Structure prediction request, 395 residues.
Amino acid sequence: MGQSNKQDLFEAPDYYLVDELLNEEQRLVRESTRRWVKKELSPIIEDYAQKAEFPTGLLKGLAEIGAFGPTTPPEYGGGGLDQIAYGLMMQELERGDSGIRSTASVQGSLVMYPIFRFGSEEQKRKFLPRLASGELIGCFGLTEPDHGSDPASMTTRFTDGGDHVVLSGAKMWISNAPFADIAVVWAKNEEGTIKGLIVERGMEGFTTPETHHKWSLRASATGELVFDRVKVPVENILPQAEGLKGPLSCLNQARYGIAWGAIGAAMDCYDTALRYARQRTQFGKPIASFQLQQKKLAEMITEITKAQLLTWRLGVLKNENRATPAQISMAKRNNVEMALRIARESRQLLGAMGITGEYPIMRHMMNLESVITYEGTHDIHLLITGQDITGISAF
Ligand code: TGC
Ligand code: FAD
Prediction:
C-alpha cells in the first residue's frame, strides 16, 4: 500500500524548466502558497470533502497569504501582483483542492474585480479592504435555474423605488452563497439592461439556501440566491457596469485563474501516480516498469508541460493587456479537460487504491467535473473559439 497523501509529499513536475521563465516575485508567491497548502490545507481537505463541508477555518489563512484580491491594487487592500503570480497562486490552491481555489477565484475575480472595475470610489473604499482581509466573504450571482450558458436571457429584475430598487428573482449554483456576507448580483433594470448590484446579507427578502448532495466540489459550499422584493439602496448599484459584458469581463479574470488552477490539479494527480507506480509491485516488478503504465505517465507529463507553456504565454499576454477572451477560453477549456483526463488515468493507475480518500485523485476527478462545467461549459468555450476563428456565432 502506498503512503497516504495526508503527508503531502507533492513534488511539482517541471519538465521544460518553466520555472526559469518566472521572476523572483512569481516564484516567491508560488512557494509560499505551496507551503501553506501543504501545511494547512492538505492535512484536512479530504475529511471536509467526505463530510461535504467547506473548511471555514481556512478563510483567515487564505486572506493572510493574499489569496483574496491578489491583483487588486494595494491601496484597496489587494496584493498588487502581476497576472502570472496570480495564476501560480491559483495553480497551487487547486493543487490542494478545486473548491478552495473556487473560493479564492470568486472573492478576487468575481467579487472584488467587479467592485474595483465598475464600482464608485465609495463602494471600493467600503468593500474592497474588508474583502481582501477576509472580514467579508462575497459571492457572484449570474446563473439562474433556467439560464446557465445563456445568461443574456436572465429574468432576475429590479424596479425603481426612489432611493432604492426592488429586486426579484433567483440565482442558482452559486459558490460561497450559503455563508457569503455580500453578493454581486447581475439583474435587468426596467429597460432590460443588465446591471450589477451589491446585495448584503440581512437585507429583507434575501435568502441563500444551500444546495446539498453534490458528488463534486464537496468541500465548497454552493447555494441559491433568492430575492423576494429585496430593497437594495441605489448606492449599491455598480455605476460603470452596463450590459452582459459587465459579468463576462469578470469571467475573463476567473477563467484565466482556472486555466492555471487546472494545471495544479493535474500535477497533483500525476505526481501521486508517478510515486505510486514506482512503489507498487505486481508480478515481481514495480508497476512503473510496465510499458502501459509508462505510456500513461509519459502522456500525462507531456500534456502538463504543454498546458504550462500555453498558460505562461497567456499570462504574459494578460500582463500586457493583450490576452483576448477567446484566448482565455481556449486555455480554460484545454487545461480542464487535460486535468480531467489525467485524473481519470491516474485513478486507474492506482487500481483500487485510486477510489479511496487515502489519495487525492478521486477528489480531484470529481471536483473537475464541476470545473469543466462552471465558468462556461466545455462546449461553450469550444463555440467561443469557433466564433473567433470563423466570425460566425454557433450559439
Ligand atoms: P454576446 O452577444 O456574444 O456578447 C454580449 C456582449 O458581451 C461582450 N462579451 C464579452 N465581454 C467581455 N468578456 C467576454 N468574455 C465577452 N464575451 C462577450 C460582447 O462583446 C457583447 O458586447 P456588446 O458591447 O456588443 O454588448 O453574448 P451572447 O448572449 O451571445 O452569449 C455569449 C456567451 C455564450 C459566450 C456567453 O454568454 C457565455 O460565456 N456563456 C457562459 C456563461 C458562463 O460562463 N457562466 C458562468 C457563471 S459564473 C460561474 O460559473 C462561477 S463558478 C465560480 C467558482 O469558481 O466556483
Ligand atoms: P446549460 O446551459 O443548461 O447547458 C447544458 C448543456 O448544454 C451543456 O453541456 C452545455 O454545454 C450545452 N449547451 C448549452 N448551450 C449550448 C449551445 N448553444 N450549443 C451547444 N451546446 C450547448 N454560476 C454563477 O453564476 N456563480 C457561481 O458562483 C457558480 N458556481 C458554480 C459552482 C458549481 C459547483 C457549479 C456546478 C456551477 C456553478 N455555477 C455558478 C453555474 C455554472 O456557471 C453553470 O452551471 C454553467 O454556466 C452551465 O449552465 P447550466 O448548468 O445551466 O447548463
